[in-house]
Design goal:
Number of helices: 9
Number of strands: 0
Order of helices and strands: HHHHHHHHH
Helix content: over 70%
Radius of gyration: 20 Å
Structural class: mainly alpha
Keywords: Membrane, Transmembrane, Transmembrane helix
Length: about 250
């Protein structure tokens, strides 16, 4: 994403092109780091399960994307938290423009704050344990939280259609893609992985590979979404209205 220089910052719009340029570097580094860590996790699982029996005693848990103590999980927490910060900034900018989508930005900011905390604390796993006591959780519903979360997410996307259409066509498409990619991992692969975990256990090779895809799609969805928000902020920063105010 290119950033154009537009002069000195205005005190009423502190998110300047210099700040955007630094955010672009952070975004690029996050993309590279997540790709490297995901590849390391894939390679480790393939190597460990290449023999007749998996030798988990040599596993480097820091490289396991499904471990709460892994570097990938730590990066996921940071990426979700950064996305929340950018969304709060976008909400503030929308408030300055008296946009009718102010609450959409702040709602998304709160949602990503929750996602960041969930990556750290594993709230969805605790919810799944509670739901499994109250419903039959077999097959695709083995991880009981996934199906209700998917239904809520689809409903949420329907509610946010006017918000999505307020973006340029390119960013609107990317926004939808980010949601589809993230939900494919967080809900789709989670449900498929649950059916495999029920039959083979969470230590099976198939489950480990599915987990890598799941976490990778979640991260990809968040990074695409951050790209959209950065592009939106960059467009507003260099808009004629903002330049005239300087």
């Amino acid at each position: 994403m290119s950033v154009r220089s537009t002069g000195s910052p205005h005190r009423d719009f502190p998110f300047t092109t210099d700040v955007l340029a630094r955010w672009n570097w952070v975004f690029a580094l996050s993309c590279v780091a997540s790709a490297l860590l995901l590849c390391a996790s894939f390679i480790q699982d393939i190597v460990l399960y290449s023999g007749t029996e998996a030798d988990l005693s040599n596993k480097i848990w820091l490289l396991d994307v499904d471990s709460e103590e892994s570097a990938f999980t730590w990066l996921s927490v940071i990426v979700a938290f950064c996305a929340a910060g950018l969304l709060f900034r976008a909400g503030s900018e929308a408030s300055m423009r008296n946009s009718r989508f102010i609450w959409h930005w702040y709602f998304l900011a709160a949602l990503f704050m929750l996602l960041s905390f969930d990556e750290f604390a594993g709230i969805h796993e605790k919810i799944s344990a509670v739901l499994s006591l109250r419903m039959e959780n077999t097959g695709l519903l083995y991880f009981a939280w996934a199906a209700p979360a998917g239904v809520i997410s689809v409903f949420g996307l329907a509610v946010f259609v006017p918000f999505i259409r307020s973006f340029s066509p390119r960013l609107a498409v990317l926004l939808v893609i980010s949601a589809v990619v993230f939900l494919s991992g967080a809900v789709g692969f989670e449900m498929i992985g649950g059916s495999v975990a029920e039959l083979e256990g969470v230590g099976s090779f198939r489950y480990r590979i599915l987990t890598n895809f799941e976490e990778g799609l979640e991260m990809a969805g968040m990074l695409i979404f951050i790209f959209v928000v950065l592009s939106h902020l960059e467009g507003n920063e260099t808009s004629p209205r903002v330049l005239a105010a300087r």
